[in-house]
Amino acid sequence: MTESLETTTHTTDSGPGGYAAARLRLLQEESRSGPPRRTALADLTDRWLAALLTGGAETAGIARGAALVAVGGYGRGELSPRSDLDVLLLHDGSADRSALAALADHIWYPVWDMGLALDHSVRTPDEARGTAAEDLKVQLGLLDARHIAGDAALTADLRTTVLADWRAQAPRRLPELHALCQERAERHGELQFLLEPDLKEARGGLRDATALRAIAASWLADAPREGLDDARRRLLDARDALHLSTGRATDRLALQEQDQVAGALGLLDADALLRQIYESARLISYASDVTWREVERVLRGRSAARPRLRALLGGRGGRGGAGSGADAGERSPLAEGVVEQDGEVVLARAARPDRDPVLPLRAAAAAAQAGLPLSLHAVRRLTAAARPLPVPWPPEAREQLITLLGAGESTVGVWEALEAEGLITRLLPDWERVRCRPQRNPVHRWTVDRHLVETAVRASALSRRVGRPDLLLVAALLHDIGKGWPGDHSVAGETIARDVAARIGFDRADVAVLATLVRHHLLLVETATRRDLDDPATVRSVAEAVGSVTTLELLHALTEADALATGPAAWSAWRGSLVTDLVKRVSAVLAGEPADDWSTPQQTTAEQERLAVEAWRTGGPVLALHARSESLPPGETGLLTDVTEGPPEEGSTGPEPIGVELLIAVPDQPGVLATAAGVLALHRLTVRAADLRAVELPSELDAAEAAGAAGGVLLLSWRVAAEYGSLPQAARLRNDLLRALDGSLDIVARLAEREAAYRKYPRRRGVHAPPPRVTVAPGSSQLATVIEVRAQDAPGLLHRIGRALEHAGVAVRSAHVSTLGANAVDAFYVTDDAGAPLKPMHAAEVAQQVEAALTSTPGA
User: Fold this and answer.
1) Strands, E, within 96-208: which ranges?
2) Might you give the EC number(s) for this enzyme (predicted)?
3) What is the C-alpha separation between 152 and 146, in angstroms, rounded?
4) Roughly what angle, to the nearest 10 degrees, separates helices 395-405 and 448-460?
């Protein structure tokens, strides 16, 4: 039965002004938020649009045969403060086009006048079905169609036919939907790991939650329901708060908005907000994985059933009959109590999780080793029935955990299944503090817990390099476990690691090794990139901390696995070469060999000697550029063209470049480090490492030449990379360096001009960088004082540090530069005029002067 358009709900807010005022009052009500506010906003909008439909129908002369339908998020009643209005004007085709156009204009224009985003269409039911058949997104929107006003029968008929079409076409449309979800995930990333996530489009976001509703509507499969509605609600609440705080229709939770959004939701801070969002996204992602596997299983079963059905109908005992061959229900044993069935790992019929406390770890290890997912039913049965493990764990439980961690990439999915049902925190209670914990450092690509699992995955590939792979894998899993506690996470982690290692059954000696690995998991990379490896104090300090060759071997592999699991900026062939060099030196000391004496002059290569002689004879700087690669021994270089002619061809197996080495020999004079760094900054070269030392001139020089060489020659060895574009020519670098040294090129002014030019353009909004920090590293060297600088990386930073050290009146023996994402951590070995370490008071003053110079405006 059709409904007259005149009988639609009346509202006192029919005019735009009345609706706007009512809408504003609703959004400002602090007592009403979340689902009640979204529902109230949808109801208010329904009444307004219904009144517009009624008035428009009267004007256009349309008595019946038209309906206003909400689709998409509006159809679900999920209106956020700045959401689009997705509306369909449905008609039966009886009205003429001009009348329909007038009716549509009467509805759409007031919406546009309000400044609301509108996604609208005017269609008959057949046209709506046809468009849905061609456009998957339209069909998904129609699955949530909800009647607003007008002819209710039209809306009901459309919903019935759209749902019938969807269920009939599900075997074809669901794979299309799955591909759409995967493409969106690749484009927007995973919500549960992003520092600035898109709440709607990223994997695990609102789009995926909507896709799960669509799958359920197909009747082919259904998502795990536990917690799913709450996860969706939390994401919608965050989006509401984001809309209200920004006043914009945005779904991206930018860094600068997070504290305000957290406050609006009653959360402690931005980290608490992100953790809540990550937990919700993780639940939706896991539900999506489980549901899509079920869809694939059902579709695969239908495909396999068709030939069997045809054979049965063909009769005469065809080979495809029910009693022939293997079927989808066949079970293959994987471990005690664990079998494979239909592409998943399930529990055997005879399994007794209530009597077998090791069964959860055994099932997980079997699944990871087989590269198969754990079935949802199996995980939930284990969660509900499994007995807690005794403390300490029995040897089998420990071995199964190590087997799980050593399975490689397949460990991740199995671990996520256990974590989704709370089994991980039951096995390892300390895991709760790191679960879904965000990492604000942009170098990190994962949350703390996922980073730990990824480190174990990376460590599994390095297990052949160590004598105790079990300790390596467990250390990888625990190395950042202290990040959930206050203070230095390495110190806190050492204590936690001791407790966990003892709980899972390691003996006292192994517990001590694991505690050392966790306490010093950053030692090698920080020392290699920030300390002078030619200083015997550096090597001895690492040897004392590590204690044994076996522990050093494990720490080396853990360092690489940790960095590889962090992100691209945390590891490179260059960093790997520095760490390997440090490990070789420490190994020699642990084996009883003496550390190199820094007071002994370093051996000068033939090329360095040639450059030094030429620099002294010409009285100016001499430069050489070379590529270094892993396959070349120390001191030998390849040609510059190895790295400047573009990337290697596909399939190339040539050595990987670890940086471009720039050698500069220059007659000794004040300010060389700062001047050279400034020239490199002008040419947009990023400095990865720097070393400065005096070079002895060869004894073959005649007496006159030797007499003139009293001033000596400095050799600067840099590892550089082009900020963008190609490397500059050595001749241009030499020319600018020569001009800078003689004062005709004002480096300070040029860098200040560039900084001022940058400030003219609006930069990407974000949190302000913390101020620089300059400290004295006590006990790092017996022959020099180590000044450590931590600051936001910026063009000319090394130049400014060099100038500050020059003004402080200290000599720089060497510099060690490390850049991690946007952060620079640089160490400078400095001495006084006599070549001795600085007195403590003097060192503190120098550190203060450098920090003050970095805090001031560049060029001031």
Assistant:
1) 118-123, 146-150
2) 2.7.7.59, 3.1.4.-
3) 10
4) 90
Count other Cβ atoms within 10 Å, centred on residue 723: 11
- Give the C-alpha distances (Å, rounded to integers) separating 754 from 662, 759, 798, 854: 24, 9, 15, 17
Provide DSSP, 567-621. -GGG--HHHHHHHHHHHHHHHHHHTTPPPPPTTSPPPPPHHHHHHHHHHHHHTS-
As a whole number of angstroms, the distance between CA 776 and CA 765 comes to 33
CA distance 466 to 470: 9
Q: Please count the other Cβ atoms lying within 10 Å of the Cβ belonging to residue 316.
A: 6
Written as one letter, the residue type at 292 is W
3-state secondary structure of 123: strand
Question: In the structure encoding, which two tokens stand for residue 111, read together?
Answer: 């919406």
> If you ran DSSP here, which 8-state letter would residue 198 be given?
B
SS3 173: helix
129: amino acid identity, one letter: R
Burial class from Cβ neighbours inside 10 Å (0-12, 13-18, 19+) for residue 121 reads: middle
Strand order in the sheet with 657-667: 622-629, 657-667, 713-722, 685-695, 811-820, 823-831, 785-792, 773-777
Question: Residue 842, class by beta-carbon neighbours within 10 Å (0-12 exposed, 13-18 middle, 19+ buried)?
Answer: middle
At 367, the amino acid letter reads A
Residue with tokens 């070549």: 835
Q: Closest Cα to residue 795, out of 664, 622, 677?
A: 677
Chunked into runs of 10 residues, the chain (860 residues) has average pLDDT values of: 42 64 89 89 95 88 89 93 94 91 94 92 95 94 95 95 95 95 94 93 96 94 87 96 93 94 94 96 95 92 67 50 47 92 92 94 95 94 90 94 94 95 94 93 88 96 89 97 92 97 96 97 92 86 94 97 89 87 94 64 74 85 71 36 31 44 84 87 78 71 47 80 72 88 87 70 49 85 87 82 91 76 78 90 94 75
Is-contact 354 384, C-beta < 8 A?
Answer: no
Strand blocks (E) in 198-330: none
Tokens 């297990």 label which residue? 463
Which residues pair with residue 814 across a beta bridge?
691, 829
Q: Residues 130, 107: contact at Cβ < 8 Å?
A: no
C-alpha 477/C-alpha 497 separation (Å) is 10
Structure tokens at 633: 């021994």
**How buried is residue 595: exposed, middle or buried, by Cβ count under 10 Å (0-12/13-18/19+)?**
middle
Q: What are 827's strand-pairing partners? A: 788, 816
Are the beta carbons of 242 and 256 closer than 8 angstroms? no
Written as six digits, the tokens of 211 are 């896709």
Distance from C-alpha of 728 to C-alpha of 313, rounded to nearest angstrom: 77
How far, in Å, CA of 816 to CA of 824, rounded?
Answer: 11
Burial of 183 (0-12, 13-18, 19+ CB in 10 A): exposed
Contacts of 571 (CB under 8 A, 6+ apart): 560, 563, 564
Q: What radius of gyration, in Å, describes the C-alpha atoms of the chain? A: 34
Is residue 216 packed enough to be buried (19+ CB in 10 Å), middle (13-18) or exposed (0-12)?
middle
- Residue 133 φ/ψ, nearest 5 degrees: -65, -25
* Closest to 427 measured CA to CA, from 478, 377, 487: 478
Q: CA-to-CA distance for 225 and 830, rounded, in angstroms?
A: 63
Distance CA 692, CA 685 (A): 18
As a whole number of angstroms, the longest Cα–Cα distance in the chain is 116
Cis peptide before 634 (omega within 30 of 0): no
The phi and psi torsions of 205 (rounded to 5 degrees) equal -95, -165
Instruction: Supply angle C-alpha 572, 576, 581, rounded to 5.
Output: 150
SS3 content of the chain, % helix, strand, coil (to 5): 55, 15, 35
